[in-house]
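Morning F.,

Quick status update on the modeling queue. The single chain you submitted on Monday has been processed. Sequence for confirmation:
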Amino acid sequence: MADIDAIKAELKKLNAKATQAKMDLHDLSEDLPTNWERIPEVARIAHEAHEALMAARAKLAAAQAAA
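Structure tokens below.
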């Protein structure tokens, strides 16, 4: 159960990070063409944040299924 609680805590942090990355990407898109040079960087950060979030969700689902 401690593992599941730790994964849930990690998931909460990753969700906040992914949400912020999504908002940063959204804000950048609204300001285009200003700062267009940052598109790859901001998109990479958003992609990595959501990739980590999806991995944590899968990890939680596996841990809950095993419990």
